[in-house]
Amino acid sequence: MIIQVLHIIGSLGLFLFGMRTMSDGIQKAAGERLQSILNYMTRNRFSAIMTGFLITAIVQSSSATTVMVVSFVNAGLLQLTQSIGVIMGANIGTTITGWIVAILGFKVDIAALALPAIGIGFFLMLVKKLDKKDLGETMIGFGLLFMGLSFLKDSVPDISKYPELLEAISKLSGMGLLSYFIFIVTGALLTIIVQSSSAAMAITLTMAYAGWIDYPTAAAIVLGENIGTTVTAYLASVGTSVNARRASRAHTLFNVFGVIWMTPLFGVFLKLVDYIVPGDVYGVSATMALPAHLAMFHSMFNIVNTIVSAFFIKQLAAIVSRLVPEDGSLPTSYSLKYIRATLQDTPEFYLLTVKRELSKMADIISDMFNRFWDFFSINEKHFGDEVEVQKKMEDLTDKMQEEITKFLSQCSLDNMNQVSAKNVYSMIRITNELESIGDSCYNLMILAERRSKQHIVINQEALDKLLPYVDLVKQFIRFIRSHLNEHLSSENMAVAVKLEEKINKMRNTLKQSASKRLQDGSNVRSELLYIDIVRHVEQIGDHSLNITQSLNRLG
User: What is residue 130's DSSP assignment?
Assistant: First the structure.
């Protein structure tokens, strides 16, 4: 008995490892294209649903798609309503795995598919000249997945040999509505344990095929797996923005809502599937027909649930907005939040998290610079705790730089494609430059406070000349924020260089004006402070140019 249990665990481990390897290879091969699809194909609710379906069907994991969606929402690249549509589509896309297992896993000699796939994949990875390492990894993952499924199918013992277990399962199945909810909870727990609804579905199909569970029981477990898969997205949203947390809650509510409306229609739905799919699931050859019936049940449930819910996306967004209210307070601590999903542990996937954090950093330094100018330009304004707030923001950028740099340095470059490896170096430099801008903004606020406290009077004409200089730097900061995390074209690079040249030219003019005023007998303290302001503002322009150079090198 112990040996059989170990065989089942080992078979499941091989299946999960194969799924992870296949998903890793697909994500590396697809690279930024998956993210581009997600960003550009979400114009309305129906295109968002189709996007979620296609990406999940490709990477074979709704967890990967939903975690990606949470990251995009957190970075402000997707609106809440768009993200809900993608998540709905992901629920349909994840049903593809059930069909693959049902059609190939139990009706075809899997070993005949698995070993050639592994052989082809190994050849593609071995011959570097072909430059198909990612495709080779995908093929090997495909082969291991089906080999694991084959072992799993053979490892599950005949239930007739264990009458006491058969009797216990029969008792659980005979309690009506209570049995229904027990098996829903079982499905949810199973998915949470293996961290993949696709893997949980494969286990359920295998158990049904082996005769351990009947059709209604397996269908109830499938419903529970739909709820269990929402845990990954929930974990991914911990410590993220308000909208990202709302997106994960919407995922949970959507799936729970589906189970609720399915409860009174469960028997009718099972009969409808029986009518559509050939084969008798209650007769002698029930186990042969069960996998296809369950795959159809899974697909139909998610399709109908999506169709019904698609008309209430705005209402769902309103509900989660109430459940997760706005929080306008500044965070006092920082740690880089990312989800190590069991089956999608790839550096390329984590770079999306880094891009999200870089966007946050850019927003913070933009706010810091605007705060400085607001208080410097109106000298009579009472400072209060503004310097302390600016200091907290500067400390936050310091911590973000430390955490992001540490994370990027820990990414295994050997497991990345060349584009992603190059992007890591660019992201490290961008992080450092953003932190340096934060330092300059804090120093500028200190100078503004000194002017106020020491009642330093600056010539009004000099202040007027400073305004277009500051506006240029504001324009440069807006420029890098709008182009952050994307390859900067040569045309946009030329725009950045021109901005920097204008800033340098204006810096020289302002410094010359200050020197002339000193020679004419102007107040020394006011002119030295003025020159310090000019210098720190110009440094922000330098750091901004360095960021654009790194963006130009992004793949």
Answer: G
Look up residue 277 and give its two tokens: 């799919």
What would the pLDDT profile of 11-66 be if each residue is shown by its tens digit?
777 777 776 677 677 666 665 565 566 555 556 677 788 888 887 777 666 766 77
Q: For 327-343, how does the pLDDT look when each residue is reduced to its tens digit (9 = 90+)?
A: 655 455 566 654 444 33
**Secondary structure (DSSP) of 380-426:** TS--TTHHHHHHHHHHHHHHHHHHHHHHHHHS-GGGS-HHHHHHHHH
Total residue count of the chain as it appears in this document = 555
pTM here? 0.59
Q: Which of 40, 34, 69, 77 is nearest to 359 (CA)?
A: 77
Give pLDDT tens digits for 141-192.
878 877 876 776 667 655 445 555 545 665 666 677 888 898 898 888 888 7
Question: Cβ contacts of residue 182 below 8 Å, gap of 6+?
Answer: 172, 175
Give SS3 for 92: helix
Q: What are residue 281's phi and psi, to 5 degrees?
A: -90, 0
Distance CA 331, CA 33 (A): 33
For CA atoms 250, 256, 262, 267, the dihedral sign is positive
Select the more confidently predicted residue: 341 or 243: 243
To which CATH superfamily is domain 347-553 assigned? Phosphate transport system protein phou homolog 2; domain 2 (1.20.58.220)
User: For the purposes of burial, counting CB atoms within 10 Å of the CB of 345, is it exposed (0-12), middle (13-18) or buried (19 or more)?
Assistant: middle
Q: Return the C-alpha torsion angle 367, 373, 376, 377, nearest 10.
A: -140
Q: How many CB atoms sit inside 10 A of residue 442's CB?
A: 22
- Helical H segments across 156-214, by residue range: 163-173, 177-194, 197-209
Per domain, the residue ranges of the chain are 159-323, 347-553
Nearest of 359, 390, 362 to residue 376 by alpha carbon: 390
Task: Identify the pLDDT of residue 118.
Answer: 86
- DSSP class of residue 536 equals H
Residues 6 or more apart whose Cβ sits within 8 Å of residue 253: 316, 319, 320
Please say whether the beta carbons of 12 and 148 come within 8 A: yes
Residue pair 18/147 in contact (Cβ under 8 Å)? The answer is yes
What does the alpha-carbon distance between residue 215 and residue 289 come to, in Å, rounded to a whole number?
A: 10
Residue 395, CA atoms < 13 Å, CB-side half-sphere: 11
Distance CA 219, CA 184 (A): 9
